[in-house]
Amino acid sequence: MGACYLGCDIGGTASRYAVADATGEIVTRGAVAGANGLVHDPAARRTLEAALAGIAAALPGPFESAVFGLTGYDPGTRDEVSRLICQLCALPSDNLIILDDIELAYRCLFQPGEGHIVAAGTGVIGLHIGADGQRLRVGGRGMLIDDAGSAGWIALSAIHALYRRLDEDGAPGDMVRLAEALYRHAGGCGWADIKALVYAGDRGRIGELARAVAEAAEAGDDHAADLLRRAGLELARLGHLLRKRGGDYPVAFTGGALLLSPVIGATITESLGDRARFPGLDPTAGAARLALTASRN
Questions:
Q1: Measured between alpha carbons, how far is residue 16 from residues 19, 242, 282, 286 in Å?
Q2: What is the three-class DSSP state of 34?
Q3: Phi and psi at residue 7, in whole multiples of 5°?
Q4: Bridge partners of 97?
Q5: CA 189, CA 193: separation in Å to the nearest integer?
Q6: What pTM was estimated for this model as a whole?
Q7: Which residues contact 211 (CB under 8 A, 6 or more apart)?
Q8: Do residues 46 and 38 touch, judged by C-beta distance below 8 A?
Q9: Beta bridge pairs of residue 65
């Protein structure tokens, strides 16, 4: 096959990989189970090891260079993460670049100093990388603190509003569509199922409840629709902060939360105008092409 370049996007839902040839064409791609970069947690470490082993088993190798993006990655653990990747995937450490997932997304879309990114999935974070390499981050503090505008925030805000209504009136009233959608997505018909889902602590499952809010809004629930507009305003706020602190550049909005409803993107555009961008993003292929570019520098 000739020279090959490996890109991996390790996320909580799935660990995706792609291989580019010397022209930048993607010749192989696939996915194994999800993982993260929290190697100090023994359970997370085992999950990462399993994901890396699965990627290694699926790929022919050897590779000229590789770029790995990992959710939850802390640069302070680079040596340990690098050791695991090199050992399990048979990669030389001097041809390996490791990034967190938001920096990978940024570098797939912009050269440093050319733009900002707001990535909204279960959580949300904004990033600008300056021409001098300095990083400006906004948000990204987790749903227990903020993450306003993310799928997790949408879900928890809906639950909060619904149970306040039930406390006040004993019935959902004009929030009935929202109540029905939340209960259905939680797997049952009442508080016990909502409580079990939320307090299990699985961020991904909480974030998935945002789909119930989108369904209720589409069915005509005004409270759900208003919550989606508020999410758009919160995401736009991060874009405004990046432009205020990092410079007057376009802001790329990415992530699964934007796919919940066109209301979110429309609200962002109303707030930011033509500075808001909604690019298609394939971080796995982007990582493979970044590996190719890095090998030439």
A1: 11, 29, 10, 12
A2: coil
A3: -125, 135
A4: 67
A5: 7
A6: 0.88
A7: 185, 260
A8: no
A9: 5
